[in-house]
Amino acid sequence: MKTKHFAMFAFAFAVVGPAGAEDAAQPKMSKEQQEMADAFERMGAVRAEHKQLEYFVGDWKTKNTMWMDPKAPPQESQGKSHSEATFGGRYIETKFDGDMMGQPFSGRGVMGYDNLGGKFFSTWYDSMSTGFWLSYGSYDKASNSYTYHGSMDDPMAPKTKVAVRAVVHIVDPTHYTFEWYETHKGKEGKTMQIEYSKQ
Q: Tell me: the pLDDT tens digits for 165-182?
């Protein structure tokens, strides 16, 4: 962690105090210290965007479809997903269990809204890889969907990246879809879709 960032966190801890500490009179902050405290408050505020993500909280049944070869029929499987809000609603953590390509499969993800960056984000890691997925995106009210952009390591060509576009479309209060598009040789193709039904 950079020295400046560490100093900011140290200052925030000094102002707020350790958890459970008794309230005590604090010396009056300087203008710079007050501005820093205000910045931390803005950074950690739970906003409308965070509350919007509460839609995903709950237990979901999934239907998973994968296109390994555009010329071949897709592979289908079932799964289940559990999502819950953490840290006062600042993040949504997801646990997914099912199967993929005939093997047991588990994954974990976190989604949220970065107040400083002004963007939604999504992370993912699972039992079939050793990498970590991070993407940033935006929400479109007209289509009621989130679109994320990121890249992943290409397992067929080590040390190269594949551009990915992920679209989460909210169908109704109890159904949404997740679509995964990869770009290979300049051509984008849909390689995965997950249909979620709330339980």
A: 999 999 999 999 999 999
